[in-house]
Amino acid sequence: MSRLANKVILVTGSATGIGKAIAKRCVAEGAQVIIHGLEADLAANVVAELGSHKAVAHVEDLTAEGCPQRLVDLAVKTFGKLDAIVNNAAMVSQGNIHDTDAAFFMKMISVNTLAPFLLIQAALPELTKTRGNVLNIGSVNAYSGEPNLLPYSISKGGLMTLTRNLGDTLMRENGVRVNQINPGWVLTENEAQRKREHGLKEDWYTDLPKVYAPAGRILWPEEIAAAAVFWLADESGPISGQVMDLEQHPFIGRNPPKDSSTIPTK
């Protein structure tokens, strides 16, 4: 039996990377999905791959006023209801205490923390009807992060607190579960491109120091998607307000030796 049969799931940032993998896995498990992203061609490609009877796309910046409500309305108009949202869309950019200005910091918070809150707020009436759930996609950087990922790490820390807080509140008041996955270093299209832009070789991910990749490789988006299904499915029962780290080593308190490679880990 399909684990997500007859469910309607909205996945933000699903034109590429982890979000795309989650959307594809959701459809494979019997769901219908709303694809969201900033690139119209990439979003259209995902819908074409999944089939228009299984997916519909919406292209818009999540921080645009009214975007969360438009996404919810599209789900209800197209598929008749909304069972779950996956807050996956995120801004990933470097910044530290010395080079981060207020505008950059606020943009990071707006995309990575405020936008998920506003989407939950907009979706809550529909999720209450279906006793649905929310899955936030965070990062292991939420616990402290790297020096050059300061604003990003703070934004993901805020998202984790949002998950813990609403996981309690919405379960008691609305019957809606809220949980979170914190991925480690994942080989997405965007991550591969970022590292090439940083000057690394084309196949940089094939030869990583064991301190960063004990398994000899980093995570695949499909592995994050496999874990997401558990939280989106009814089999996770009443569990709410929980955060699950998905990384191949214990991140907290694990500091690479000073002579190790300087490849950033996330």
UniProtKB/TrEMBL annotation:
> PROSITE patterns annotated for this entry?
ADH_SHORT (PS00061)
Q: Which InterPro entries match?
A: NAD(P)-bd_dom_sf, Sc_DH/Rdtase_CS, SDR_fam
Q: Which domain of life is it from?
A: Bacteria
Give the family this protein belongs to, as stated in its UniProt record: Belongs to the short-chain dehydrogenases/reductases (SDR) family.
Q: Which PANTHER family match?
A: EG:BACR7A4.14 PROTEIN-RELATED, ZGC:101858
Name under which the protein is recorded? NAD(P)-dependent dehydrogenase, short-chain alcohol dehydrogenase family
